[in-house]
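WARN  no MSA supplied for this record, continuing single-sequence
INFO  ligand: coenzyme a persulfide
INFO  echoing inputs
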Amino acid sequence: MSLDQETFELLKASVQRFVQERLVPAEDLVEETDDIPEDIVADMKELGLYGLSIPEEYGGIGLNMEQECQVAFELGQTALAFRSLVGTNIGIGSQGILMDGTQEQKETYLPRIASGDLTISFALTEPDAGSDAASLKTRAVADGDGYVITGTKRFITNAPRAGAFTLMARTGGPGAGGITAFIVPAGLPGLTLGKPDKKMGQRGTRTCDVNLDEVRVPAANIIGGEPGKGFKTAMKVLDRGRLHISAIACGMAQRILRESVAYAQQRKQFGQRIGDFQLIQAMLADSQAELLAGWSMVQAVARRYDAKPFGAHDPEVSMQASCTKMFTTEMVGRVADRGVQIHGGSGYISEFKVERFYRDVRLLRLYEGTTQIQQLVIGKHLMN
Ligand code: COS
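INFO  complex generated
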């Protein structure tokens, strides 16, 4: 699956324009209101952003991973809340259905996910199961022709906007093999949302707990129809998500570097532009070189991801996705830190964009697997 090159270039140019002309000017409003204006949400639907990764036969744009990463690189160049809004539909919410769902599930859900009429969230994390995802406790008990689900899911991105959740629950014994992925509609009796999480950054991105108190779902809502496969579905979804996040990290590094260069060109000290001092240039050069390294990794690994059969688990590619996520998200942390340093005292003041981006990028090293989880995936693969 991929979009022909000519159409893809047109799409990429429209996204670039949209980011610069529509999203960048709205960044301050998103920061102030902690929300994304509805007219921008509508424009994002119109542009097809919700359906970037969904095949054309289900109403999406049908990008392959390499193309998705290029668009994600563009979306990463503005407040990360905009990307989060569409991120669960493009990635972790939808991909389990696309990879492992039944034909009926794909036909029922994917067109509405692609259009943005349905926001779908990914519900794996729990109060006592973060990095150790296989220990999750939410239980789904078979009852007649359905399952009754009880438990709590934590930090669920887009939960307040979600019409459905790709939700992992335990149907069997302990460990990964006892986990099943369900499609859980948001309006079911017994499903309630916690209060909004107050986060360090990424204002405008809505996250909260999802509480399930004896929520009854039909057995037909098991992704793929067969219990016990949910952990693998979640891991495959995260492999893809980790590449997407890596592209976002590179986009944001690009933006911070641009802000830093612009500041270094206009700020004068000791009678000249600070950018003419070699110590400032050294910081800019380190950021540029690391960004180039990270972006080259993303593109190379995305191509390898596209070369394997869709939805198949290739441990070598999973390991490389972890390398990429680890490197690029750590890289953007260093780029943001240097960005603040180049801005001096102004970098600590909220009117300057780097202050905000410095806080925003901190999350990239945590979600979809911490840096330490990526190290474990890489280390385990090398020792196998
Ligand atoms: N794709 C498909 N299957 C995978 C996989 C992948 N990327 N990674 C592991 N699996 C399979 C394994 O092959 C194994 O299958 P078998 O039982 O048939 O051998 C099964 O899943 C269990 O794997 P493993 O024993 O490696 O699981 P662990 O409990 O040791 O967990 C880590 C592995 C730590 C890597 C996993 O729990 C993880 O990624 N945790 C972080 C979760 C995360 O990213 N959370 C972020 C919140 S979601 S935004």
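The chain is about 50% helix and 15% strand.
INFO  checksum written, moving to next record
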